[in-house]
Amino acid sequence: MNLVLTCEHGGNKVPAKHRSLFEGEQRALDSHRGWDPGALDLARQMARRTKRPLVFCTTTRLLVDLNRTRKHPSLFSEWSRRLTDAEREELLNAHWLPHRAALLEHLERMRGETALHLSVHSFTPRWKGRVRNVDIGLLHDPSRRREREVVLAWRKAILERDPTLRVYLNRPYFGTADGLTTELRARFPARDYLGIEIEVSQRFPQGSPTRWARVRSDLTNSLVEVLDAAP
């Protein structure tokens, strides 16, 4: 099975020309609102291990969110919504469109064969005062048979390595919600495109380095096992 990885929220950098928007807002930039801590580390490890391409961005999602469609209200944050229409269009041309173009270039090369697009993210373990009882989320569209087969096989392979991990399907988000994989499912038939997101609790990258290294290794090795077993 072909594989291409993406990481939409790999950093919280602010381009020099937009730094004035975020003066005094470093706390927001450093929080889960500004980026997905640990996601790019995991994505890079998976790309190295599988020797497959990785498309990523390290610009903060508070400028423009690469995992949102053009019409989604969260495409721009409360800070970037202050910009003019022309300035926001410039952001799309500088960050949002190139990310999609790079991914589509890889997918087009794989056309005619099954391509697995794995989008790597992390999530805050506490949301609106409530603890999320999830460690790993595997997001997919249940109506697409092969996506469901892959996430079920991957969940099984992860738990065989570490039964203590709480691995769920379509938690803490729905795999059919607005996002890059959902957008691309509408573009590519199910036989050609599998769009899966992995969501990892930020308690791992923000906790013990040893534990985080083990989780990254287990997720990566279990992914390789699923890829090797795929017809």
List the helices and strands and how they pair.
Layout: E1 2-7, H1 26-30, H2 39-50, E2 54-56, H3 85-109, E3 115-123, E4 126-127, E5 130-131, E6 136-139, H4 145-161, E7 167-169, H5 180-185, E8 193-201, H6 209-229
Parallel strand pairs: 1-2, 1-3, 3-8, 6-7
Antiparallel strand pairs: 4-5, 6-8
Short description:
The protein has six helices and eight strands.
CATH topology type: Aminopeptidase
Query: Level of helix content?
Result: 25-40%
CATH second-level architecture: 3-Layer(aba) Sandwich
Order of helices and strands: EHHEHEEEEHEHEH
DSSP strand tally = 8
Number of helical segments with 4 or more residues? 6
* Poorly predicted regions: none
Query: What would you call the shape?
Result: globular
What percent strand?
15-25%
Strand order of the largest sheet: 2-1-3-8-6-7
Query: How far is it from the N-terminal to the C-terminal residue, by CA?
Result: 7 Å
CATH homology-level superfamily: Zn-dependent exopeptidases
Domain module count: 1
CATH class: Alpha Beta
Radius of gyration: 17 Å
Structural class by SSE content: alpha/beta
Mean pLDDT figure = 97
- Give the biggest beta sheet: 6 strands, mixed
